[in-house]
Design a protein that fits this description.
By secondary structure, the protein is an alpha/beta fold. It is built from 16 helices and 17 strands. The longest helix is centred in the last third of the chain and has 27 residues, at 427-453.
Length: 454
C-alpha cells in the first residue's frame, strides 16, 4: 500500500509505503510532521465516502438483520473501484486534521495505491478479527470474522425500522477502515509538544475552555442570554490540530492508577529500565508519580525524560489491540544518547510483538541502534559473545524486511537503502558527522600547528 502526498506544506511529491517500522528523517521544516499528521488522519478519521458496491449488503441487513460477506471475493472484484472512491475524498480530511481552512489545502492531493494481489495476501495472512475491534457503532452492529474462511458476518441489532442510511453510512466507514487496516487499526500519535501537554492537559481541554468562555461572556451580558448561533460557535471552536486535540483528550479521559498493569507493561518492565522505575496516577486533573522508594511527587518535578514519555507508558499500559499504529514525533526527545538507544530497543520490541510504529527522528544514535538490531538478525560466529558483551537479547533482533526509512529533502522523499548486513544507509546523518569531524580537525590542527611552529 502506497500513500502519495502532493503539494502538502513543504512536500511537493512524496510517496510513502508504510511497514511495521516506518522511519522519516530530514532537516527541520522538511514536512515530516505534515506527513505524520496525514498518516494519522488516514487511519483515525471517518470518511464521507459513498461505495455503490455495498448497496446489496444494506438491503440484506435491512431485510434479514445480518449479512455474510466473503471478503477475498468481494475485494478481488471491487477493491480498485473503492480505492478510486476513497481517493476522491481523502484530501477533504486535511482542514479538519490541521484545524485550518479549505483554502490552505486547495492544491493538495492525497491518494492511495493498492495492489489487489498484495491486499488479498494481507487478508489471507494478516487480517484478523482484532482489526475490526474499533469498527463497532454502539450496540447497533456486531461483526465476526473467520480468517480461515475469509468470511465476515455483520449483524444489525437495532430496530429494522431504523432508516437505511444508518446501515449504509456504517458500512461505508467499515469497508474504508478494512482497506486502510493494513497501515493500522487505529493510530495514536505522541507529538513533539507532549512534555508540556502532559503537564497542562487539564487546562488545555478545548471543551472546558469553551465552557469557561461561554460562562464568562454570559455574565458580561448581565445574564440576558446568548443567541443560539453564538452558543454553537463557542462549543465548536478548537484551538489545536486534531492529533493534538485527541492527545489531550486521551490523557484527560485515561484512568491512571499506580497499580495499572497490563501484560505488555509487565514484559517491558522485565526487559527495560526506561519506564519501570516509576508508577503514575491521575487525580483531579494532575499527574503524580511514585519513585522506587515510595515518594509521591507531582509530574512537574520529574525529569524531562519522564515528563516526555509519561503518555507512552499510559498508552502501552492500556493498549488492547496489537494491530494499532503507534506514531512518535522524535522518540529521542529529552533523552540522553544511552536512553535513545534503549528507546530504539523498546520500539523494536513492540514491533516484534505485533504493534506497528512510525517515527520521525533527527537522532543519529537512534538510527545506529536500529542498525545494530537489524544486523543482529543475522547468524555469525561471534554473535553470542556480542550479545553477552552488550546485553542484547533475542527479542532485539529486527528483520530488515519490516523496516522502511525515508529522507525528506527538497519536497520529496528518498527511500533509504536498507540491508540486513548493514542496516539503514542514513547519508543525511553521515554527511553532518563527516563535516563536524572535518571542522573539528581543521580547527584543532590550525591551533596546535601554531604552537608547534612557535
Amino acid at each position: 500500500m502506497k500513500l502519495q502526498l502532493k503539494n502538502l506544506g513543504a512536500l511537493q511529491d512524496v510517496v510513502l509505503e508504510p511497514k511495521p517500522l516506518t522511519i522519516i528523517c530530514g532537516k527541520n521544516n522538511s514536512g515530516k510532521t505534515y506527513a505524520m499528521y496525514s498518516l494519522w488522519s488516514l487511519i483515525e478519521l471517518s470518511f464521507n465516502v459513498e461505495f455503490p458496491h455495498i448497496t446489496e449488503f444494506v438491503r440484506t441487513i435491512k431485510k434479514e438483520g445480518e449479512v455474510d460477506i466473503h471478503l477475498p471475493s468481494f475485494f478481488e472484484k471491487n477493491l480498485q473501484a473503492m480505492v478510486t472512491e476513497l481517493n476522491s475524498i481523502l484530501s477533504d480530511t486535511l482542514p479538519r486534521t490541521f484545524n485550518t481552512t479549505k483554502d490552505f489545502f486547495e492544491e493538495t492531493e492525497i491518494s492511495l495505491k493498492i495492489d489487489t494481489n498484495e491486499f488479498l495476501d494481507y487478508l489471507k495472512d494478516d487480517f484478523h478479527a482484532e482489526n475490526l475491534s474499533i469498527l463497532r457503532l454502539g450496540n447497533l452492529f456486531n461483526s465476526i470474522y473467520n480468517s480461515k474462511l475469509g468470511l465476515l458476518k455483520i449483524s444489525f441489532k437495532g430496530d429494522r425500522k431504523y432508516p437505511s442510511f444508518i446501515i449504509h453510512d456504517y458500512l461505508n466507514t467499515f469497508f474504508s477502515k478494512i482497506i486502510l487496516s493494513k497501515i493500522g487499526g487505529s493510530a495514536f500519535l505522541l507529538p513533539t509538544e507532549r512534555a508540556g501537554l502532559n503537564l497542562f492537559f487539564d487546562e488545555l481541554k478545548t471543551q472546558q475552555k469553551n465552557i469557561d468562555e461561554y460562562i464568562k461572556n454570559r455574565r458580561s451580558k448581565n445574564n440576558k442570554g446568548i443567541e443560539t448561533e453564538d452558543i454553537e460557535a463557542y462549543f465548536e471552536t478548537t484551538y489545536y490540530s486534531l492529533p493534538i486535540e485527541e492527545y489531550i483528550n486521551f490523557i484527560s479521559k485515561a484512568k491512571i492508577e499506580y497499580e495499572n498493569k497490563s501484560e505488555l507493561i509487565d514484559k517491558l518492565n522485565e526487559n527495560f529500565s526506561l519506564m519501570s522505575s516509576f508508577k503514575f496516577k491521575k487525580d483531579k486533573g494532575k499527574v503524580f508519580f511514585k519513585t522506587d522508594d515510595g515518594k509521591e511527587l507531582s509530574l512537574h518535578l520529574a525529569s524531562s525524560a519522564i515528563k516526555t514519555n509519561f503518555a507512552l507508558w499510559v498508552y502501552l499500559s492500556q493498549i488492547n489491540n496489537k494491530s494499532n499504529l503507534l506514531m512518535i514525533d522524535e522518540p529521542e526527545l529529552n533523552l540522553h544518547p544511552d536512553a535513545q538507544r534503549l528507546m530504539a530497543r523498546l520500539i523494536v520490541y513492540l514491533i516484534n510483538n505485533g504493534i506497528k510504529v512510525a517515527v520521525s527522528t533527527h537522532s543519529d544514535y537512534f538510527i545506529k541502534e536500529i542498525n545494530s538490531l537489524i544486523m543482529l538478525k543475522n547468524n555469525f560466529e561471534e554473535k553470542n559473545d556480542i550479545l553477552q558483551r552488550y546485553g542484547y537479547k533475542e527479542f532485539d533482533f529486527l528483520d530488515a524486511n519490516n523496516v522502511v526509512a525515508y529522507h525528506f529533502k527538497d519536497g520529496t522523499a528518498e527511500k533509504m537503502l536498507i540491508e540486513q548486513n548493514s542496516g539503514i544507509q542514513a547519508d543525511t546523518f553521515d554527511d553532518v558527522s563527516n563535516m563536524l569531524n572535518a571542522a573539528y580537525n581543521d580547527i584543532y590542527w590550525a591551533i596546535n600547528s601554531e604552537d608547534i611552529i612557535n
